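Summary for the lay section of the report: proteins are chains of building blocks that fold into shapes. Here we show the chain for Amine oxidase and then a coded description of the shape we predicted for it.
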Amino acid sequence: MTESVKNTAAKGKEMLVSTGQTAVAGVNTMSTSAADALNITRQQGSLPSTVSSPPTLDADVIVLGAGISGLAAAAELVKRGNRVLVLEARDRIGGRIDSRIIASEESGKAFRVDMGASFVHGKYDNPIYDMTRELGMTIHYTSPEGEIRILDADGPMDENLANRLGFNVSHTFFDASRTYAQEHNPASSDSLASYVFAGNSPLFDGLDEMIEQGGSSNNASNKNSCWKAKALGRSFSGWTGAALEDVALKWWGFERDTIGPDGMVTGGKYHQVVDHLAGLVSREKKKGEIRLGEKVESVEWCSDEEYVAVKTRSSAGDECSGPTWVHTASRVICTLPLGVLQRDPPKFKPSLPPRKQRSIRSLGYGLLSKIAVRYEKAWWKESDKTTSFFILPREDHVEETMPPCLPEQKAALAPQGVMVQNFVTIDGSAQLVMFLGADYGHAMESAKQEECVEWAHDLFVRYLSPDSVESGTIPKPLGAIASSWSTDPYSLNSYTYIPSAVDVEDGLPVTPLDIADFAVPTWNGALGFAGEHTHQDRYASVHGAYESGIREGKRVGIALEMSRRGEE
Ligand SMILES: Cc1cc2nc3c(=O)[nH]c(=O)nc-3n(C[C@H](O)[C@H](O)[C@H](O)COP(=O)(O)OP(=O)(O)OC[C@H]3O[C@@H](n4cnc5c(N)ncnc54)[C@H](O)[C@@H]3O)c2cc1C
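The coded shape description reads as follows.
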């Protein structure tokens, strides 16, 4: 009935297509050795798609989705002695943790890149940081000297101005706006943009004086520094996943954060974290199983018989054909991403309670996109010094940083700076990774792969080595990949945010309680939810998703232990 994942891993190119991330060169997603070690199965043939009632249950608990939250929940339940079945639509585990291997057809060389999560946010009170230590993973922390460099098409920016802009933008986003939200209790309809781009925003502090006081004033690059500050500010839509006009100021920074600096996983190896958890799930062969390639179509609670039936269909076929299966368990934990619950949910029977439906409908789910470009050698200036470049367009040529396919009405939101990470300083690889949020991300992801890569390469050359534009001496990339999170049917965007909008049905503001509500199980405890969108304090993150999985694993584990002991 099943074939080992070794065969699945061997179909690297097919997996690439099915996961919606297309590489210019060949791609594989999971190391064969890692897959070998795991009890992961891919289905062939079909099982009956009806259930005789009451059935012999396939597992104590079924977990929907093998992202980090699903694997964490499953590992917790297996540790507590339960039989767990994890059902995953993709041909790989990890979900929005997606470590790609990109092979250059021309050179035959391969490289790795994390197309989903790459940062570990905070060192303390962060279980993911602890896990990376346990697994011996290398995390890069940027030194204070190597932080950011602003690249301006108008020419080299005066160092004082660049420092001032860099300070202003990070202070405005991470400190001042949060303090303002706490102290002034803005209306729920006020957006982050209404604070960040207001005339008296700390984003513009000291900029006019710097120009007026001479020194910098003769430098063409320093003209219109407020305009540049705005462009830089807009690049933070990559952080929020949404235009700053759409994010609620009231709840910005409301959450309980981790402590300490952010670090980056080096070498494109974030997958080690999910491989580790999958290993814990399948450590005891008869306890935990992860089944790939099964898209969940319906989840039905048979309350009389006290079990839940989950119907799946092979994700390799189309929606009407292909084998189907029915799996049964006494409890289900749903970790499907918010985007999937919003736009292509399984059929829940009975339907979800109105409060849960409101959370699904009203929370925001934004987009962060990436383009990774790898070269034989680093050719850009300051390749060994600067970790992040911010590319700013010229005021009269805002189209310079606009991705292909940006619709005209969205271009009105321009200008937007673009953040690029220089991996030479992170792990020594000659790789540049561009981050594009919200509209810029959507525009990029609706273009063809080749078009995106060409656009990114041209932009890098124009800003990182302008002298070489004419001579054409910069070598072509070895390999490259652009993300497609917005169209990938199993993510349908990147992560959750709290919008400044009201709910379309009840007209009431969206609040963190809409996230908290996800943590409340339904169907008399038989259906629970985990995933980044269910963690009020740590949504949109790997550590939040992980903690939510542990939370649900514990809740269900305790409930099962109680029922085995005959307790209420
Ligand atoms: C580009 C990008 C960059 C990011 N950067 C960072 C970062 O640097 N640091 C950080 O902390 N966080 C980051 N995040 C967020 C982080 O990756 C996510 O919050 C986290 O991985 C979500 O885990 P999850 O388990 O909730 O969901 P997922 O990982 O999405 O898992 C859900 C699983 O459900 C499966 N699924 C979906 N539909 C079905 C179906 N119908 N049937 C069966 N299975 C289904 C999916 O395939 C998936 O495997 C980033 C996200 C993105 C997209």
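Put simply, here is one thing we learned. The chain has 20 helices and 24 strands.
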